[in-house]
Structures are given as C-alpha cells and as structure tokens.
Specification:
The complex is a heterodimer of chains A (267) and B (284). Chain A is mainly alpha-helical. Chain A has helices at residues 9-17, 20-43, 53-64, 67-100, 102-115, 124-130, 134-159, 163-171, 176-214, 219-228, 232-260. Chain A folds into 2 domains: 9-43; 53-260, MetI-like fold (Orthogonal Bundle). Chain A is built from 11 helices and no strands. Chain A is globular. Chain B has 284 residues and is an alpha/beta fold. Chain B is built from 7 helices and 10 strands. In chain B, the strands form 2 sheets. A 6-stranded mixed sheet of chain B has the order 6-7-8-3-9-10, with helices on both faces. A 4-stranded antiparallel sheet of chain B has the order 2-1-4-5, covered by helices on one side. The chains are: A mainly alpha (267), B alpha/beta (284). The A-B interface holds A 1, 3, 162, 164-165, 167-174, 178, 182-183, 186-187, 189, 261-264 and B 67-69, 93-95, 97-99, 101, 103-105, 107-110, 118-119, 122-123, 146-147, 149-154, 171.
C-alpha cells in the first residue's frame, strides 16, 4: 500500500532499453520508414508521386531554419489553445448544469441537440461573416469542435454517477450545494478528462481544415501552400508536424487530467 | 481476534425502531407495484436485527424508507418514539441512520482519511483537524492506520467495507443500516468481516438493521432474524437467536445453531417457492 515513488531518470532509461516491447516499437517505426523508402524508389509504381523519407528529411531540415515554419506552429497551437480552453470554460458548466437541473436541461438540450450535428466546417462561412477577424473565426470553429464533445461527456458523466454516492453524502448531512461541489463535480472529473482527450484531437482536425480554407498562417496553411507550389516534401513535412503537434497536445491534456485525478490513472 | 470481542457487550440506550403497518406502493397511478404491505417490526435499542427473504421482496425498499431515501405510502416508522417516516412527511436522510451499501459507496476520489472525516466535516460538527484526529483514533483502534492515505480503489473489498463501517460510525448514528454489505465477498473475507462487524457491535452497541440472503450469516450475527414474505413484503415471522455473545465461529456447528437454521430454511424456502411461481406467472 506504499506510495509509488518515481524511479530516477537513469533507471527509467535503463528500463526502457531492456524492455522488449520498446524494441518491438522501434523496429516497427524503422520498418515503416524503410518500406516507405523502398516503395518510393520504384518498388511500387503508384508511390512515385510521393517523396521518399530522405527527401522529406531534407525538407524538414530546411523548414527548421525557416521562421515561417515556427510561426505556423505558434499560430496553429494558439488557435487550438484558445478554442479548446473556451470550449472547456463554457462546456463543462453547461454539461454540469444540464445534468444537475432538469428544468435547465429541458430548456437548453433541444437547441443543443439541433446544433450538435452541424460539422464544425459547416460553421466556416457564417463564422467568417460574423467575426471581425479571420483569427477569431478560426478560433471559433476550433471551439465548436471541442465544445459539443465536452458537453456530451460531462452530461453523460453526471448521469452515470452511482446513486449510492449521492445517497451517502446526503445521509451524512450534505446540503444540495455540498453534494454538487463535493460529489457531483469530482465524480464527473473522469468524464471531463475523456471529453478533453477526445476534444483535443478534434480541435487539431478542425484547425487544420479551417486554416486551409480561411487562414493565412498555421501548419494547415503551410501544408496547403506546399501543395499549391507543387512542393511535395513540404506537404509531408506539414503532415508530420500536425501529427507531432497533436501528439504533444494530447500528452499535455493527459498530464493535466492525471493531475486532476490522483486516485486514478487513465488510458 | 482482538480483545474487544471478548469484552462484555454494551447496548446503546437509544435507537429503538418501530415499523408500524408500513405499505409502499410504487407508481400508484400506473403499474401499481406493491412492494411492502402491512409490514410491522419492533426493534429494540441496541438490537441487531437481520432481515432475510427472497429477492425483490422489499427488504431494500424498507431500508431505503428508513434511511430517508424514499416515501412511505401508508403506515409509519418511529425512531425512539419520534416519527421518522410517515406518508405526510418528506423523506429526510440524516446522520442518525447511516447506510452501508452492497456495492460500497466510498468516494473514490477521497483518501480513506478524507472519506471517514466526510460526515463530521460536512455537518460542521468538527473542523478538519479535529475530524482527522478522531478518524485516526478510530482507524487505529481497528488496525487500519496504515491505509489512511490510500484511495478506496487500492483496497480489497473487505477493507473497503471496514472503512465504510468506520465512516458510518464516526457520525455516532443511532442506527446502522446495512444493505447486504458482504454479499459479493468470498467465504474467507466474509467470515473475517463478520468478526470485525461483531467486534464493533459489541464495542458500540448500536442498533443494527442488516439485510442479507445468507441465513447462516443472519443467525451468526443477529439477535433476531426476521423473515420477509415474497412481494408484497411483510414480516412473516421473527426468530430470536439466543446464542450467547460474544459469538465465535464454533457456534456454527452447535445443535442450537442448526435448529435455528432449519427453522429458518423452512420459512424462507416456502417464500422462495412462492416468489419463483409468481415470477413464472409474470413471465407467462
């Protein structure tokens, strides 16, 4: 029952290097790149339009020294951040409110359900018309991507709280507001974490597409411009960058949710 | 087994329950399910009463009404002479009757210590520091000090139930309501939990209302075993268990125990058959 302490960095690295599944993973990634290289070099005719990993690596090296590339990272990340955070700030209370109060749910849920099936990208035209700047309209579309997901998750989370937990709290003398803050809210945190995890993935999908349509900057725009210029290694660099950005963001979200739930480790 | 199970048994002065002609009808305008009908039972202060009966006979309904989670349709329940549940009063849960549930209801996001202190802190009876101290004393007395920083998810089901009973007792309730708390346990954990519960019962003398399916468990623990009929449920008979306290597992093999058991098996079996046939009728 002792509290687990974190092993030192050296032991952790050592553990990694002697772990079979780690090496299987390394082999898989290396194999993927090897297969890609070989198939582009003429093994598979339909792959001839795709640049080889070596070409992509060269392109990557060029991008690393291009400030425009890093500006793309910054702009896309900021849009995701603003949209995602706004979605949590508005979505979590809305979901909790709908789950906690039947009248509030009756009033809000029908409208919510009408708007929810509209894909984020269908909001692009109206968003451009409504918001004064392009920046705001892209952030808004990103917000839409994460908002509905978090609300649905929180609402489901409140609905699936074990009734015994609420019963216990009430029989110990908790008032309705104490039940809300001390039982409903913490019991919903795992659902909030799931909603955030799904939502962060959606925001990256959405921000890239929105940038391709409406943006002047960002990783999505960068990829699109490489395509317009016929610079295929640049397209692949853009794609990989988006993948990395999404990976890092999910890692951050996972880290935050683990901080919120010391009693539980998700995923 | 620690010393307290051999100490003389004390009985609390209050916590007498009087269940008078209680009827509970779910959905009176619609399906009209009569869960309890003319159900009466007297429980003395400090008495340990076990209630047995077929599944769906209304045992848990009765417990929920006493706990203040549900309305009573007719009849009334008194606690120490004061009305606890009547058709005209809004059900009101309270820390004088704490429930321990079958599947457990420890807050998974709180440590053992935080769980145990929840009641006194939320009622503002004690501040956090004083509650911590009191909880530590209680956990220490039952040998659970080493787990105060653990989360419930890290504990075995037996441990969880122990913590839950302590969490209930720290509120100094008049009545403990236990809804099949040991149902899902393996035999070894179950018998350890029995001894643990008896130890606490002997030490505190609280009135205990204990629901179970397990006849041996009922006889071993209780002063009185009440058999409930199949739905609509009422108390068919109540058998006094005059096995001496403190109890120990050797009593399970005595003739007295076996006689009580065969008496109960007879009564419960009859109801089980009725319940089974009623179930078949509902299916048809």
């Amino acid at each position: 029952m002792a509290v687990k302490r974190k092993a030192s960095l050296a032991t952790r690295i050592n553990k990694r290097l002697t772990n079979k599944s780690f090496w299987r993973g390394v082999t898989a990634v290396a194999g993927f790149f090897a297969l890609w290289q070989v198939s582009c070099m003429g093994a598979l005719p339909f792959m001839s339009a795709i640049p080889t990993p070596v070409e992509v690596a060269h392109a990557f090296w060029k991008f690393v020294f291009d400030p425009k590339y890093w500006a793309g990272w910054r702009d896309s990340s900021l849009r995701v951040f603003y949209g995602f955070v706004a979605a949590q700030i508005l979505g979590i209370p809305l979901g909790l409110g709908m789950g906690w109060n039947r009248n509030f749910k009756n009033l809000t849920f029908p409208v919510f359900e009408l708007l929810r099936p509209i894909p984020p990208l269908a909001w692009v035209p109206v968003s451009i018309l409504f918001w004064p700047t392009n920046e705001l309209s892209i952030a808004f579309i990103t917000f839409i991507g994460a908002f509905f997901t978090i609300v649905v998750n929180v609402l489901g989370g409140v609905g699936s709280i074990k009734k015994e937990l609420v019963y216990s709290a009430v029989s110990f003398g908790a008032s309705p507001s104490q039940v809300f803050w001390r039982v409903v809210l913490p019991a919903t945190i795992p659902s909030i974490a799931t909603g955030m995890m799904v939502g962060i993935g959606i925001t990256w999908n959405v921000v890239i597409a929105a940038e391709m349509i409406a943006g002047n900057t960002g990783l999505g725009r960068l990829t699109w411009e490489a395509y317009l210029a016929g610079y295929t290694p640049g397209i692949i660099v853009g794609m990989i960058s988006i993948g990395l950005a999404g990976y890092v963001s999910s890692g951050l979200v996972k880290w935050v949710s683990e901080l919120l739930m010391p009693w539980k480790r998700i995923f | 087994m620690s010393a307290s199970n051999t100490a003389p048994v004390c009985r609390a002065a209050d916590g007498a329950l009087s269940i008078r002609d209680v009827t509970k009808i779910y959905d009176p305008e619609g399906v009209h399910v009569v869960a309890l009908e003319h159900c009466s039972l007297e429980i003395a202060a400090g008495e340990f009463v076990a209630v047995v009966g077929p599944s769906g006979c209304g045992k848990s309904t009765l417990l929920n009404i006493m706990a203040g989670f549900d309305y009573v349709t007719h009849g009334e329940i008194l606690l120490d002479g004061a009305p606890l549940a009547t058709p005209d009063t809004r059900p009101r849960p309270g820390s004088d009757r704490v429930v321990v549930f079958q599947h457990g209801a420890l807050f998974p996001w709180k440590t053992v210590l935080e769980n145990v202190t929840y009641g006194p802190v939320v009622q503002k009876q004690l501040d956090q520091a004083a509650a911590d101290q009191r909880a530590r004393e209680m956990l220490a007395r039952v040998g659970l000090s080493n787990i105060e920083k653990s989360y419930p998810g890290q504990l075995s089901s037996g441990m969880q139930r122990r913590v839950e009973i302590i969490r209930a007792l720290i509120n100094d309730p008049k009545v403990l309501l236990l809804d099949e708390p040991f149902r899902a346990m393996d035999t070894v954990t179950k018998s350890a939990s029995h001894e643990y519960l008896l130890e606490l019962y002997n030490a505190t003398g609280k009135t205990i209302f204990f629901i179970t399916h397990d006849l041996e468990e009922a006889i071993f623990l209780a002063d009185k075993v009440a058999v409930m009929t199949t739905r609509p449920g009422h108390i068919k008979l109540a058998i006094s268990v005059d096995l001496p306290r403190p109890r120990n597992y050797r009593m399970l093999a005595t003739q007295q125990f076996l006689d009580l058991k065969s008496q109960l098996v007879e009564a419960v079996h009859e109801e089980a058959v009725k319940a089974f046939q009623a179930g078949e009728r509902e299916m048809a």
